[in-house]
Amino acid sequence: MDTTINPLGDGVYEIDTRMAGYTGITAGYLILSDRPCLVEPGTAGSAPVVRQALSELGVGAADLATVVVTHIHLDHAGGVGDIAGMYPEAEVVVHEKGARHLASPERLMRSARMVYGDSLDTLFGELKPTEAARIRAVEDTGVIDLGGGRRLESYHSPGHAKHHVGLLDSQSGDLYVGDAAGVYIPETQDVRPATPPPDFDLDAALKSLRKFQELGPQRLLFAHFGPVSEVDGTLERSAEELRVWVDAVRDARDLGLDLDHAVAMVRDRTHERYAVTRKGADPELSAKYEVLSSAEANVAGIMHSLDQHA
């Protein structure tokens, strides 16, 4: 099994978790500290890839101390149950609003199947339950001990999801942003929104981005995809893109457009903003990111939010 491991310094390793076989679309991170910690295990289908990568980095079944997820969406946390089974000593850390779904994922999986249908199995696989006694729920803030005085500090950062947290490494200054800062496309340096239903909330999302800036991180580590050193500019761009998309969807909604027509209008208004969707863009790259964060899902999430606030 091929693995792609990228050393980022300070004992941090990016692992391409290969969602649905795609490369460069979902990243997990191993912090190889005194108490090794895996951030974002990825999908259920990614679990064998992650185990192979950890093995190559010298982390055996009894060595992993902690698994942390920024939120419980299946591209980030679908593999938690599998990884918990492979690493029986690891504690699983998640925000309190997501903890019950890791212990009893049936409702989450039913909802996901309603959205994705038969493609769910190909994209994500099945989230297996994790023993409740192994799950530690954090609240607005929390601390994960990485050993040797090193800490991973969690900060509740809703907007993309109610159960989302950002994670700041006390030693490296890395901030694991999950989906709260959107999707970063390393091939083009684009930042695009991630606003799926049912939790998207613009005000909460912008507040979370301001919190991230106040934390003063040295680097942003995106689950989609990779490290970014231009912290302030990237977070400002993320906020700008959110406002652009919400304004576009609001205009479509005010015109009484249905979802399909709203998507078409938003695509027309925003495609020039991103190298990945401009005329002449690599069609494979465009298709890859449409699978990950489709315009339809983003528009649907914004429309749902506007309806909730109407």
TrEMBL record:
CDD domains named among the record's database cross-references: ST1585-like_MBL-fold (cd07726)
Cited PANTHER family: METALLO BETA-LACTAMASE SUPERFAMILY LIPOPROTEIN, METALLO-BETA-LACTAMASE DOMAIN-CONTAINING
Annotated transmembrane regions: none
InterPro entries: Metallo-B-lactamas (IPR001279), NDM-1-like (IPR050855), RibonucZ/Hydroxyglut_hydro (IPR036866), ST1585_MBL-fold (IPR037482)
Pfam family, one: Lactamase_B
Species this protein is from: Actinomadura vinacea
SMART domains noted in UniProt: Lactamase_B
Domain Metallo-beta-lactamase residue range list: 25-224
Protein name per its UniProtKB record: MBL fold metallo-hydrolase
